[in-house]
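Many introductory courses stop at the sequence. We go one step further.
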Amino acid sequence: MTGLTGSGVQLNEDTRTWTSDGDHERHSHYIDKDQVLEGYINGKPVIALCGKIWVPSRDPEKYPVCPTCKEIYAEMQK
């Protein structure tokens, strides 16, 4: 889905799913905080700002932040 928000920012929704381990093994990602607990307890996949989809199972404090998530979050704060 592609559309313009009121702020003039174009949003592109990525509907692909990731089936390999990928970078989430090497980075911690930004996700909606409501998803964190449900992901850990129920094993429900979560979606990071960068589009990564995975089931959280590791301590994110042990990994560097995903540069793409960090960039997207910074843009959202403006």
